[in-house]
Design a protein that fits this description.
The protein is α+β, with helices and mostly antiparallel strands and 279 residues long. The protein is built from seven helices and twelve strands. It has three domains: 3-121, Nuclear Transport Factor 2, Chain: A, CATH 3.10.450.50; 139-241, Alpha-Beta Plaits, CATH 3.30.70; 247-279, no CATH class. 27% of the residues lie in helices and 32% in strands.
Length: 279
């Protein structure tokens, strides 16, 4: 069997969703998501996991260069993103990425593709932060505001501790539905989420304490059941906070004076800031 034919059979096993076939067509395999070369049962397990999160893999071969000791196949992959990858929740849509397979004698395959290109194809921009330094952990955050703008009369802080990446991905999926439902909740002003290490924080703002208790839509109920009855997460903190003082300031774009954001308050040059949410 030529190396080009081996590369062809290997790609066809991926397209067929045949994890066993993937493992049987090569002696070893490596890609950016493996810690090193895989073979046998380990390769079959890896291929099965890839096929679970990327459904309907379709490789369009663009170039094949074959020599006596190696063959290089360049391809474009199209697939449907179905489960979390690189911390990205399931997008539920198709994407494409280019890559190459280097096949060497002895049926060894080294697959190369750009994981940042995959993230961008799924609508995610890369951000590089350290995992931690001597005193701090780092993470990622998101923000959502509602149409209503008012000083917050109550805050709700939730902190969840997840056990592993799979659990973190499930929490993310539940969180998306909860956030969508909160946008229609009476008195909801906005929220911010923070993922740091194995903890997920959500800080939500409402116009008054009664509005916090009104958040009881089905997605929120489903998330609560998963924690109390379904074994999701290792710890949870749920808290409500009432403001002791709220002061908001804005800087005039003309004279650079600082103005207290209150109805009708103006700076020395007459500029009156609009009330806009900082949440």
């Amino acid at each position: 069997m030529t190396l080009a034919k081996l590369a062809h059979d290997h790609l066809k096993a991926w397209e067929a969703g045949d994890a066993t076939g993937v493992a049987h067509t090569v002696r070893s395999y490596t890609d950016p998501d493996t810690a090193g070369p895989l073979s046998g049962a380990e390769l079959e397990e890896h291929a099965g996991a890839v096929m679970e999160r990327l459904r309907g893999l379709r490789f369009e071969v663009e170039h094949v260069v074959e020599g006596p000791e190696a063959a290089v196949v360049s391809w474009t992959l199209r697939a449907d993103h179905r489960t979390a990858y690189l911390g990205i929740p399931a997008a539920g849509r198709s994407f494409e990425v280019t890559g190459t397979d280097l096949v060497t004698g002895g049926a060894h395959v080294r697959r190369c593709f750009d994981r940042l290109a995959v993230a961008e194809a799924l609508g995610y921009g890369p951000r590089f932060v350290p995992a931690a330094d001597e005193v701090r952990e780092y993470g990622v955050s998101a923000r959502m505001t509602a149409a209503k703008v008012a000083p917050p009369g109550a805050l709700a802080l939730t902190c969840l501790q997840v056990g592993d990446r799979a659990e973190a991905a499930e929490v993310d999926l539940l969180s998306v539905e909860v956030v969508k439902s909160m946008r229609a909740s009476t008195g909801f002003l906005g929220l911010a989420t923070f993922d740091i290490g194995d903890r997920k924080f959500t800080l939500s703002a409402f116009d008054r304490p009664e509005s916090v208790r009104a958040v009881n839509a089905r997605p929120h109920q489903r998330a609560m059941r998963r924690f109390f009855r379904g074994g999701l997460c290792t710890r949870a903190l749920i808290s409500h906070w009432l403001p002791a003082a709220i002061r908001e300031y804005a800087r005039c774009p003309g004279c650079a004076g600082v103005v207290t954001v209150e109805d009708g308050t103006a700076c020395n040059c007459g500029w009156v800031p609009d009330r806009a949410s900082l949440l």
